[in-house]
Amino acid sequence: MIQASGHGGAVEHADRSAKAERAGATSLVRVAAVGDLHYTRTSQGLLERALGGDVLSRADVLVLCGDLTDYGLPEEARALAKDLSGVKLPIIAVLGNHDHESGQAEAVVEILRDTGGVTVLDGESCEVRGVGFAGAKGFGGGFGRRVLEPWGEPAIKRFVQDALDEALKLERALSRLRTRSRVAVLHYAPIKGTVEGESLEIYPFLGSSRLEEPINRFRASLVFHGHCHHGTPEGRTTAGIPVYNVALPVLRRTLSDGAPPVRLVELPADEADPRGQGGPARA
């Protein structure tokens, strides 16, 4: 069973998976997700103001989908880490393109980990309360038949290789999960559907369908991503797996008036599935 929230912070009921019922899911885990906080030196307190303590008090896990900082500066990371240190939840994150801007991504990760208690995933996976999380930043390149191919100048080939490397990171992380519920955490979009609303000219720089292939193959339960500030809040992969664009500007624009800008999703948590079989979410 997957239940998704997007209106007023309430959890919407979704169809229960009979397969999950028969397999004996024992509990539900509420995952709160948001991306693109873009913390600056003076942003301290933004998290509380944006999300509100009530939402976080009803969640079991907090997921942050990249662009945690504005310029990837250590002082920006410290402001965010100080706010996150007061969040009494497990926190999982991936970096975004802004977090790499100043060439100090490693310092940003270290500060978030040591001061904010954040688990930053970059091709790794982890399990929290019986739910598996696989994370990578992702990269651009476009979608479907128009995806950029490694042809021509070395610069194009390097760009495509970076996209392939990020897809392989996600593949590696998903392949290690044995939990029934598996969440793919990205910054870049894996499908065109949640990019729609952005200018067509920048689609290739907002995501890549190369990220979709491992999501479908390893039967993730759902995907969270950010990056697309003017995109669409929800979509599905070709295999029917729900994809949520949780960029903060999207949530602010699309949720009902007064609703905290955070996506809240319930997932079944249970013992590891010895068959290694997950399944697409039903939302």
Beta-strand fraction estimate: 15-25%
Element-level helix/strand string: EEHEHHEHEHEEEHEHEEEHE
- CATH homologous superfamily title: Metallo-dependent phosphatases
Sheet/helix structural class: alpha/beta
What is the tally of beta strands?
Answer: 13
Distance between the termini: 8 Å
The best one-word shape is globular
Walk me through what this model shows.
The protein is built from 8 helices and 13 strands. By secondary structure, the protein is of the alpha/beta class. It has a single domain (3-269), classed as Purple Acid Phosphatase, chain A, domain 2, CATH 3.60.21. A 7-stranded mixed sheet has the order 2-1-13-3-4-5-6. The protein is globular. The N and C termini lie close together (8 Å). The model is unreliable at 6-25 and 272-283 (pLDDT under 50).
List keywords for this structure.
283 residues; six-stranded mixed sheet; Purple Acid Phosphatase, chain A, domain 2; seven-stranded mixed sheet; globular; alpha/beta
Short description:
By secondary structure, the protein is α/β, with parallel strands linked by helices.
Secondary structure elements and their pairing?
Layout: E1 3-7, E2 10-11, H1 18-23, E3 27-34, H2 46-51, H3 53-57, E4 61-65, H4 74-84, E5 91-94, H5 105-114, E6 118-120, E7 124-128, E8 131-135, H6 154-175, E9 182-185, H7 212-217, E10 222-225, E11 234-236, E12 242-245, H8 248-254, E13 263-269
Parallel strand pairs: 3-4, 4-5, 5-6, 8-9, 9-10, 10-12
Antiparallel strand pairs: 1-2, 1-13, 3-13, 7-8, 11-12
Helix pairs in contact: 4-5
